[in-house]
């Protein structure tokens, strides 16, 4: 006999990943800290190169000087963005969301994290977003 007002079976929820161990957090923190230092160093070098080039170019700057300044500025902007991505990953490590997809909350495979520790999405969600962009 079934209850007349039995609730429909709840949809299965995706299993939440186990929280990382303290040792794992320490390893990821160390790796991200090293990447942060490298990215800060790159950004500093590019910023100094840009300002040095800007100070030494003629007024008005020639086409070659302008092109060089624009290239350095693009590279410095990309380096600043990369540094911010590493800072975001460090923040996710602190708040416990590191290693989980921002879209579906599934764990991101360790191999993907090792290749790009700043990644925020699993391969499945990245693929879906590319399909959406292409469509
Ligand atoms: Zn996902």
Quick one: overall form? elongated
Q: Please report the number of helical segments.
A: 4
Residue share in helix: 55-70%
The count of strands amounts to 0
Keywords:
2 domains, elongated, mainly alpha, single chain, 4 helices
What does this structure look like?
The chain is an all-alpha fold and 135 residues long. The chain has two domains: 78 residues; 37 residues, no CATH class. Helix content is 64%, strand content 0%. The protein has four helices and no strands. The longest helix is centred in the N-terminal third of the chain and has 35 residues. The mean pLDDT is 87. It binds zinc ion.
Summarize this, please?
The chain is mostly helical and 135 residues long. It has four helices and no strands. The radius of gyration is 23 Å and the shape is elongated.
SSE topology sketch:
Blueprint lengths: L21 H35 L6 H33 L14 H6 L7 H12 L1
Helix pairs in contact: 1-2
This protein binds zinc ion (ZN).
């Amino acid at each position: 006999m079934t209850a007349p007002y039995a609730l429909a079976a709840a949809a299965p929820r995706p299993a939440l990943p186990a929280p990382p161990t303290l040792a794992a957090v320490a390893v990821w923190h160390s790796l991200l800290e090293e990447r942060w230092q490298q990215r800060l160093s790159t950004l500093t070098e590019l910023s100094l190169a840009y300002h040095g080039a800007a100070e030494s170019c003629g007024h008005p700057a020639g086409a070659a000087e302008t092109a060089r300044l624009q290239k350095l500025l693009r590279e410095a902007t990309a380096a600043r963005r990369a540094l911010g991505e590493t800072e975001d990953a460090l923040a996710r490590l602190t708040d416990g969301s590191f290693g989980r997809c921002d879209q579906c909350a599934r764990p991101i495979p360790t191999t993907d994290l090792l290749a790009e520790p700043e990644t925020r999405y699993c391969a499945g969600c990245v693929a879906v977003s590319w399909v959406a962009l292409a469509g």
